[in-house]
Amino acid sequence: MLSIKNLHASIEGTPILRGINLEVKAGEVHAIMGPNGSGKSTLASVLAGREEYEVTEGEVTFKGKDLLDLAPEDRAREGVFLAFQYPVEIPGVSSTNFLRTAVNQVREYRGLEPLDAVKFLSLMKEKMKLVEIDQKLLSRALNEGFSGGEKKRNEIFQMAMLEPTLSILDETDSGLDIDALKVVSNGVNQLKSADNATIVVTHYQRLLDYIVPDYVHVLYKGRIVKSGTKELALELEEKGYDWIKEEIDSAATV
Amino acid sequence: MSKDNEILEEFTSKEYEHGWSVNYEADEAAVGLNEDIIKWISAKKEEPSWLLEWRLKAFRTWQEMAEPDWANVTYPKIDFDKLRYYSAPKQSNKPKNLNEVDPELLAIYERLGISLNEQKRLQGIAVDAVLDSVSVATTFKGTLSKLGIIFCSFSEAVKEHPELVKKYLGSVVPMTDNYYAALNSAVFSDGSFCYIPKGVRCPMELSTYFRINAANTGQFERTLIVAEEESYVSYLEGCTAPQRDENQLHAAVVEIYAAAHAEVKYSTVQNWFPGDKNGKGGIYNFVTKRGICAGDHSKISWTQVETGSAVTWKYPSCILKGDYSIGEFYSVAVTNNYQQADTGTKMIHIGKNTKSRIVSKGISAGKSQNSYRGQVQVMKRADNARNFSQCDSLLMGDRCGAHTFPYIDINNPSAKVEHEATTSKIGEDQIFYCNQRGIATEDAVALIVNGYAKEVLNQLPMEFAVEAQKLLALTLEGSVG
Ligand SMILES: Nc1ncnc2c1ncn2[C@@H]1O[C@H](COP(=O)(O)OP(=O)(O)OP(=O)(O)O)[C@@H](O)[C@H]1O
Ligand SMILES: [Mg+2]
Predict the structure, then answer these.
(1) DSSP states of A153-201 as a string?
(2) Which residue in B75, B86, B391, B443 is a FRET match for B408, CA 20 to 30 A apart?
(3) Which three-class secondary structure state does DSSP give residue B401?
(4) What is the tens place of the pLDDT at every residue in A70-128?
(5) Which ligand is nearest to the CA of A32?
(6) What's an example of a GO molecular-function annotation for this chain (chain A) (predicted)?
(7) What is the DSSP letter of B71?
(8) Does domain A2-253 match CATH 3.40.50.300?
């Protein structure tokens, strides 16, 4: 579904991603871990099409299409969804209005009729249950004054509404309380199918107890330096990153 | 050029959609301004002599006055002798009702989306349609007159209700008030007149739709709204003009009088031709609007959505004379390309326990300049006066300007005046967030801008609000992409 080959990207001339390789197949869950500043959010942003990042080398195909060639909104319409690490606030725009615009533009791209108000609202009701989000939150301006956890929950609610094929969750667990983490993870698991895939970026093993990954990758200095199964996450939880850093850094100085 | 600018560039390049004009035979005054022209206009309108005298007095005062230069706008000096002050479509005999109005003129309004056909109108809105210097039709007069409401063109009011016109004309905006008000008093041609008798709630929205068609002609309309005790009216004003290379002058005066417990809501969606992308042409919109809350517990509320005009100079104001009276000003002003707007309000607290609220939302794009200028004045005897002002500016791109000029003058220690101001940029991260959900950039900007202006748009009557939202999006279309 997603194939990343030797991806290099920089921002304002500073290289951040230095040769990422990753294959994600339908039905899989990949976890990406790694120390702060290693480039996890950058990778997510580049895949979503954020303009500030310049791709200097490499290629990315998504469902056989050249992903890097598509405008950000078309990537979304093709089924790429990014749950942001820091969701932005849009004052005065209700979540409902925002999502209705989004859902209908995505549908239009896929050649589907727009949903009328009644159908849209019933879809919303259904998806609200999935992440147990409060109606009151959705009638407020999008993310405005939302607590950290509310923002994260709202991201997953939007994911449920848009039914993406590839979801990238960037530290969705940070900011969620223990109960919310269960609810949100449960929502993500229910959305999983044989046809879609998920990339979860996280610092904590805890999330991976709920959303169980097929593969775990460690990103360090803009490269995937180690890949393994969910046991790797447990090892990292126990030992931290130092041993990996040492391995890589000493190799680099030789 | 950064990506941001590129985006803005594209979004601001949308064309004005009401730029067409039609040819019709016109009845015109000669070009230029002098006492003979004023006499000619007055004679044309078969006015009583007191009104001619009033005009001439205004003209003489105007001649002594200097064009104001304190506003944050620049434009070449207007040569008032090169303008035409009256132009009206020729109509063989005066139409007595809508059926007699020249279908060609009605067609102009149809094309603007304003149906003057009463049967066709779904919504309860009565319209006075003003084309260049005259009112061509007023709808629903019959329905309204059953309630004692007078809604007609200004010219007709002068003929049918001279005592009312004489009593209120110039009572809120004196002819000597300012340069453009004096000019308007001298040469005004038509406009709307509205009178709501005591205790009557006007059952439909009243509206005037102004259209400038003729070239090289100034439009000087005059609107007078009188709301007697315990009455209520909601009034709407819309305007468009053809796309022409030269600038055209629009200098209107609106006066509102509210007696005790009366409430007047005045909403404007101003969409005069703003000039082209390079700043060529466009309307100079120099307007004086003022209301007086004359009686206790009266309320006047101005709501404006300003998207058009090359230069706007406009400060809808409230004189809060009655105790417990309330003045409100809600404004969204959008400037794009080379537009300049200097707009705001004055709230003058005279009565005790008077309250005012100002919400101004400026949006600047392109190379435009957008200024808020507001004055809050609390007089000596205005015990417990309250004002709250919120002035927000939203910038799109880095070549436009937003400015705020608040003036506060307090002469009573019990006054409470609050002023809040913010300036923000439409964020690339906000746009990206929308994009990431599948929303195209233009729609993202429309969403964000409408969200920003929501508090003001919410003040508009329903069908106007939808119109205004579309207009905001349209005005900014091409400025982000
Ligand atoms: N405009 C910029 N100029 C230079 N460096 C930048 C710029 N923006 C981001 N970076 C750097 O890019 C690196 C990668 O950032 P990124 O947000 O991808 O890290 P991350 O792995 O998501 O970290 P975290 O775990 O803290 O979320 C960081 O060192 C960051 O400081
Ligand atoms: Mg990050």
Answers:
(1) HHHHHHHHHH--SEEEEESTTTT--HHHHHHHHHHHHHH--TT-EEEEE
(2) B75
(3) strand
(4) 999 999 999 999 999 999 999 999 898 899 999 999 999 999 999 988 899 999 999 99
(5) 1
(6) ATP hydrolysis activity
(7) S
(8) yes
Q: Which of A51, A106, A141 sits opposite B438 (nearest CB)?
A: A106
Query: Domain ranges in chain B?
Result: 2-476
3-state secondary structure of B1: coil
Distance set, CA B49 to CA B39, B52, B234, B310, B365 (Å):
10, 5, 33, 37, 49
Which of the 8 DSSP states describes residue B235?
E
> How does pLDDT run across B287-296, given as a tens digit for each residue?
999 999 999 9
Q: pLDDT, tens digit, for every residue of A137-148? A: 988 999 999 999
Tokens representing B364?
Answer: 């600047």
3-class SS of residue B233? strand
- Distance, in Å, from the CA atom of B455 to the CA atom of B331, rounded to the nearest integer, reads 9
Asked if B454 and A88 touch (Cβ cutoff 8 Å), the reply is no
B296 residue type, one letter: D
Predicted pLDDT of residue B30: 78
Q: What's the complex ipTM?
A: 0.95
- Could B454 and A158 be called an inter-chain contact, meaning their C-beta atoms sit closer than 8 Å? no
Which DSSP state fits B91? Answer: -
Beta-bridge partner residues of B265: B234, B301
Given phi > 0 = left and psi -120 to 50 = alpha, else beta, which region is B195? beta
| Cβ neighbourhood burial of B40 (10 Å; 0-12, 13-18, 19+) | middle
Going across the sheet that includes A2-11, the strands are: A14-24, A2-11, A53-62, A65-66
Q: CB A73 to CB B447 under 8 A?
A: no
Nearest to B432 among A50, A102, A162 (CB): A50
Nearest to B436 among A82, A90, A92 (CB): A82
A98 touches chain B (CB under 8 A): yes
The contact set of B with A (CB < 8 A) is 3, 427-430, 432-441, 443, 447-448, 450-455
φ/ψ of A12, rounded to 5, equals 45, 45
pLDDT tier for residue B79 given thresholds of 50, 70 and 90? confident
- Cβ burial, residue A66 (10 Å; 0-12/13-18/19+): exposed
| A152: closest CA of chain B, how far (Å) | 14
Q: Would you state the structure tokens that stand for residue A105, as one six-digit string?
A: 């533009």
In A, which residues are within 8 Å of B433 by CB distance?
84, 87-88, 90
- How would you class B249 by CB atoms within 10 Å of its CB: exposed for 0-12, middle for 13-18, buried for 19 or more? buried
- Please report which confidence band the pLDDT of residue B96 belongs to, taking 50, 70 and 90 as the band edges: low
- SS3 call for B436: helix
Strands A53-62 and A2-11: antiparallel
Helices B441-452 and A95-109, interaxial angle, to 10°? Answer: 170
The shortest C-alpha distance from B433 to chain A (Å) reads: 7
Q: Which residues line ligand 1 (CB under 6 A)?
A: A 11-12, 14, 16, 34, 36-42, 85
Cα-to-centroid distance, B400 and ligand 2 (Å): 34
Distance CA A249, CA A235 (A): 19
CA distances from B3 to A134, B8, B134, B367, B481 (A): 37, 9, 48, 17, 9
* CB-CB neighbors (< 8 A) of B442 in chain A: none
A57 in Cβ contact with A17 (< 8 Å): no
Q: Which ligand neighbours the alpha carbon of A84 most closely?
A: 2
Put simply, the answer to whether A98 touches B454 (Cβ < 8 Å) is no
Could you identify the residue written with the tokens 């994911």? A159
What's the rounded Cα separation, in Å, for the pair B198 and B193?
A: 16
What pTM, to 2 d.p., does this model score? 0.81
Q: What is the chain B residue with the closest CA to A101?
A: B439
